[in-house]
């Protein structure tokens, strides 16, 4: 039985534009920009310098603490290690690599036999996943090895998130249709690490081909079930997915492990397979490039470090883009500099035209309450917006601003077109900054 989460919306999903377009490999660009931070946690320190020759898959950055390494997606020469534009809207230290088109692999990359994989202990596997630089590829970018090691002994339910509820995005849908065996092999590795004999792959019911493809590779003894859930945004959000599958509610400020659950994205499972079986680190990913002015929407295997400009050129657009978004239109981040590179968390580039936007110059709340009905976190967006206007951090905390998952349901339903999510993002940052300032005063 699927539990139904509160609120949510049914936006036009526009997935028909790309869901039947098979995955193609994007040609490696001449120059790639690899940010040294593509994960939640401490940025990597560079392990290479200008003029160094690097191999494909070679580690080029790493650090201690909450960190995963980054690797070169091509073989070539390091042109620079410098600050470059990043999808977060800031600049970030990055390794700029000139592709030598020799495709020279790092000598450490090698396939493992079934016997070798079977002999790996959970600790070995967690180590391999860290060294491969794997993070949550649904956009969260939390280091996967940390999620796995912190879940040891605490988790009784593994959920694989193939929900992909954001409009336009079809990368995971195509992944499950075209690489079901690799996704399932990754799920089995997660099960081995966490010592569990069952797992559930959850999809929305608008992806029947993906569900069929996965089921075709599953046997009852695998202990893996495929569950289809009603299509409703944000079905793929972690807390809503856990509730839909198990009926358990992650407490405010808590992690899924607090209710015995661990959630992994389907693309993350494929990356785990690639690291363990093929010995290949995370140097490329599937990206949906779509949007309402895109001439030829595509699902592409893109080397990390490829610029958005290159991707826009590959699909073409019928008019000047009004917005280019890293991710989908609901939770993605609008980009102001299209030289930004694709990162481990880029599941989509969404290109939207001007004519489809609604602009209101001085929006005013009309107190209709629609945002409250839509909020899947049962928050009061209208009061949260008022607290933002007050500028008082305590006030923002009192309306549970930090529980906002930035899903955009409130903004989608708001007839006054208030910039709710944008405001909540900045409000959450103010709360974090305030807490950091208070902590440093105590030291
Ligand atoms: S963006 Fe935040 S406040 Fe708005 S609906 Fe989503 S969780 Fe609720
Ligand atoms: S939906 Fe918009 S106009 Fe209606 S109460 Fe919420 S913020 Fe105000």
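^ structure tokens above, recovered residues below v
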């Amino acid at each position: 039985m699927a539990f139904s989460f509160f609120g949510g919306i049914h936006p036009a999903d526009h997935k028909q534009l790309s869901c039947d377009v098979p995955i193609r490999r994007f040609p490696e660009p001449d120059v790639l920009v690899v940010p040294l931070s593509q994960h939640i946690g401490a940025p990597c320190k560079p392990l290479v310098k200008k003029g160094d020759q690097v191999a494909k898959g070679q580690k080029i950055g790493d650090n201690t603490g909450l960190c995963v390494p980054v690797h070169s997606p091509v073989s070539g020469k390091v042109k620079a290690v410098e600050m470059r534009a990043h999808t977060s809207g800031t600049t970030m230290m990055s390794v700029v690599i000139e592709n030598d088109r020799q495709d020279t692999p790092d000598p450490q990359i090698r396939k493992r036999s079934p016997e070798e994989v079977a002999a790996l202990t959970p600790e070995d596997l967690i180590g391999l996943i860290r060294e491969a630089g794997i993070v949550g590829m649904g956009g969260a970018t939390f280091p996967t090895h940390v999620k796995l090691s912190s879940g040891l002994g605490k988790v009784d339910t593994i959920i694989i998130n193939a929900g992909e509820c954001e409009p336009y995005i079809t990368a995971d849908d195509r992944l499950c249709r075209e690489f079901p065996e690799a996704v399932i092999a990754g799920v089995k590795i997660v099960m081995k690490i966490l010592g569990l004999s069952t797992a559930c792959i959850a999809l929305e019911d608008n992806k029947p081909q993906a569900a069929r493809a996965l089921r075709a590779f599953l046997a009852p003894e695998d202990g893996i079930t495929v569950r289809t859930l009603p299509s409703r945004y944000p079905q793929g959000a972690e807390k809503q997915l856990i509730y839909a599958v198990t009926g358990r509610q992650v407490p405010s400020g808590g992690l899924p492990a607090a209710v015995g659950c661990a959630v992994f994205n389907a693309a993350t499972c494929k990356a785990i397979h690639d690291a363990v079986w093929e010995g290949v680190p995370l140097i490329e990913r599937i990206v949906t490039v779509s949007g309402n002015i895109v001439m030829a929407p595509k699902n592409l295997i893109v080397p990390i470090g490829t610029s958005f400009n290159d991707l826009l050129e590959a699909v073409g657009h019928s008019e000047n883009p009004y917005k280019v978004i890293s991710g989908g239109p609901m939770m993605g981040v609008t980009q102001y500099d299209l030289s930004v590179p694709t990162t481990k968390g880029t599941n989509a580039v969404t290109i939207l035209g001007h004519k489809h936007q609604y602009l209101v110059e001085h929006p005013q709340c009309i107190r209709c309450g629609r945002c409250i009905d839509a909020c899947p976190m049962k928050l009061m967006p209208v009061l949260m917006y008022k607290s933002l206007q007050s500028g008082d951090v305590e006030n923002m905390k009192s309306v549970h601003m930090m529980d906002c998952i930035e899903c955009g349901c409130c903004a989608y339903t708001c007839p006054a077109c208030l910039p709710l999510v944008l405001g909540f993002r900045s409000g959450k940052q103010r709360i974090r900054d305030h807490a950091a300032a208070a902590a440093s005063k105590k030291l």
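The longest strand covers residues 76-85.
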